[in-house]
Structure formats: structure tokens, C-alpha cells
Amino acid sequence: MIRDDIKAALVNAMKSGDKQGTAAIRLIQAAIKNRDIELRTASQTPDDDVIVTEVLQKMIKQRRESIELYDKGGRPELADAERGEVAVIERFLPQQMSEDEARAAIQAIVAELGASSVKDMGRVMAALKERHAGQIDMSKASGLVKGALS
Fold first, then answer.
1. Which one of 51, 91, 135, 147 has the lowest number of neighbouring Cβ atoms within 10 Å?
2. How far apart are CA 136 and CA 144, in angstroms?
3. What is the DSSP-derived secondary structure letter of residue 95?
4. Nearest to 52 by CA among 120, 3, 117
């Protein structure tokens, strides 16, 4: 489980004196804990690894947006700190699909659902998220789905 890997990595980072890694892993754990609290009242909870992967992908997306803003604002030291956090977070994500694999998965779902226009994008994205949530970046997938349907 990804959650166990994160706990073990925190212990290792603390023992090795890696302050940046320790801080980033603690941020990861805090975000996961917040997600767990949100899901307490949910009627149906997804698999644990799916939850953790969603949290990690959201954290990476936030940091990439911050990096872009810091670079535009002339703050390279803050952008570098964010890049370091992204590198730590990415260590815990499962292997991501390549673009070709993602296109193949999307084509299979489009064919299976009989989707023919952009109006069917919601159904395709829902099926894609259900089957490949931890393996594909949904922000990139939406562009690929739109391209497949047009």
C-alpha cells in the first residue's frame, strides 16, 4: 500500500536528516489525513490506494501551478522548493501510463461506450477515471479524450 510506503519513507528521511524530504512527506501525510476526514461521512469510499493517489496527483498539480507563478514572478528559490516537493511526491505515485498507452485505453473505452461526439466526453472521462484513476493524469487525459472524440 502506498500509505505504508509513505510512513516508511518518513522514518528513513528523518533518520538520514533529510529536512526537505521530511517536510514534504509530512505535508503528504497531512493531506491524506484531511482526505480521510472528508470521507468519514461518505456513503461509499474508494480503495485506499485510489484515495492516496488522488491526493498525491492533486498536490502535484497545485505545486506545478505554484512553480509557474513563481517563475513568472521572478522567485526562482520558491519555484525550486516546489520542484523539490514535486520530486518527493512523485516517488509515491504508481507507474503512470505513457501517452500511447493512455490513447489506447481511451480508444478502448470510446469503442466500448459507443461514444461518437464531444457530448459523450463526460461518460468517457467517468469510465476512464473508474478504471485508470491512479495510472493516468486526468488533466492530460481530458485533452486526449477530446481529441479522440472530435
1. 147
2. 11
3. P
4. 3
Give the list of residues 6+ apart from residue 33 with CB closer than 8 angstroms, or none: none
pLDDT, one tens digit per residue, over 88-113 is: 999 998 888 888 888 888 888 988 88
Q: Any idea where the domains of the chain sit in the sequence? A: 2-90, 99-149
Domains 2-90 and 99-149 share a fold: no
* CA distances, 38 to each of 3, 57, 60, 78, 134 (Å): 17, 17, 20, 30, 19
Structure confidence at residue 56 as a pLDDT band (50, 70, 90): very high
Reported as a pLDDT band with limits 50, 70 and 90, residue 8 is very high
| pLDDT at res. 94 | 81
Residues 120 and 46: their CA atoms lie apart, in Å, by 24
pLDDT tens for each residue of 115-127: 888 888 888 888 8
Architecture in CATH for domain 2-90: Orthogonal Bundle (1.10)
99-149 CATH: 1.10.10.410
